[in-house]
Specification:
The protein starts with a helix and ends in a 14-residue tail after the last strand. The protein is an alpha+beta fold and about 90 residues long. The chain has one helix and four strands. Strand 1 (about 35-40) and strand 2 form a beta hairpin. It is flat, with a radius of gyration of 16 Å. The protein has a single domain (about 5-90), classed as Roll (Nuclear Transport Factor 2, Chain: A). The chain has one helix at about 5-20; strands at about 35-40, 45-50, 60-65, 70-75.
């Protein structure tokens, strides 16, 4: 599967997930509100990290396994962030 087709399919899967009640509030979005954070293709496999313009802390990881023609969909919620200062000597 080429990258453009993969990204289009990923965005559609995120929209389906959200429009089918995954959020605590009703949400009906289009693929225009889904964006790719990171994308990789290795041999016949693809992986993308995606998010939306909804400020709910959700992000999505979708992997395409070209050997088995399967997609794996994971949804995550960002729960914690901390800045950690490092000593220059540690680098």
């Amino acid at each position: 599967m080429d990258n453009d087709k993969f990204v289009e399919l990923c965005k559609e899967k995120v929209v389906e997930y959200l429009d089918n009640g995954a959020l605590s509030i009703p949400s009906y979005i289009s693929t225009d509100y889904v964006y790719v954070v990171w994308l990789n293709r290795t041999l016949q496999n693809n992986k993308a990290l995606l998010s939306t313009t909804i400020s709910d802390g959700m992000y999505f990881e979708i992997t395409y396994n070209g050997d088995d023609n399967e997609m794996y969909f994971d949804a995550y919620k960002h729960t914690y962030n901390e800045a950690i200062k490092l000593d220059i000597d540690m680098l």
